[in-house]
Specification:
The protein is of the alpha/beta class and 196 residues long. The chain is 20% helix and 19% strand. Strand 4 and strand 5 form a beta hairpin.
Length: 196
């Protein structure tokens, strides 16, 4: 589909937002190519949660295992968006997250249910930048904290984990990258640039 308005309507986004652009350069393959990589270079897919804007090519990496929260994978199908579209689970090996875990040295997966039943966030330590907290939608934008995480799947859990993530970021003096922040977006590096 090449029509952004039609895609917005088909996906039933409503007040959530709208599709801004549909173009070949927005595909995972094109974004990986900007970094000199191909889809075949990916050895693990990490799924933060299964809302429509986070599962774009979930079935597009043949044979690649998926790391996902057990609570999210236990759902009859991916959340996609308000159940308006039927999407089945891809046939893959799933590595299920049931609590915070160290994926590797300097890469922590943080289980933060609230926005979604199996919401994950990530704390990564980079050689020059230091700690970076990728909140995904555990904290979609800074203002969501003051708004009390209204509209979350489980508001009290979202508030609890939002507080936990911000405390952890403060303790480690981490750069916090929010999941959906128009204010922050212009200041972030984008492929082919990256944080080092």
């Amino acid at each position: 589909m090449a029509n952004a308005q039609a895609a917005t309507e088909e996906d039933g986004l409503g007040s959530f937002g709208r599709v801004l652009q549909i173009a070949p350069e927005n595909t995972p393959a094109a974004q990986l190519a900007k970094l000199g990589l191909a889809k075949s270079d990916v050895t693990l897919m990490i799924q933060s949660h299964t809302h429509i804007d986070h599962i774009g090519d979930m079935d597009g990496f043949a044979g690649v295992p998926i790391l996902i929260a057990a609570a999210e994978r236990a759902l009859p199908r991916p959340l996609y968006w308000s159940g308006k579209q039927a999407m089945e689970w891809p046939s893959r090996d799933y590595h299920l997250v049931t609590g915070d875990l160290f994926l590797s040295s300097g890469f922590e997966v943080l289980l933060c249910p609230g926005h979604a039943p199996g919401q994950l966030a990530f704390m990564v330590k980079l050689p020059q930048t230091g700690w970076v907290l990728l909140t995904s939608d555990a904290i979609s934008r800074a203002a969501e904290i003051d708004e009390g995480f209204a509209g979350s799947w489980d508001v009290p859990l979202a508030v609890h984990h939002g507080d936990r993530l911000m405390r952890l970021a403060q303790e480690r003096d981490a750069l916090v990258i929010f999941g959906h922040s128009p204010q922050q977006w212009p200041s972030l590096r984008k492929a082919p640039e990256w944080f080092t």
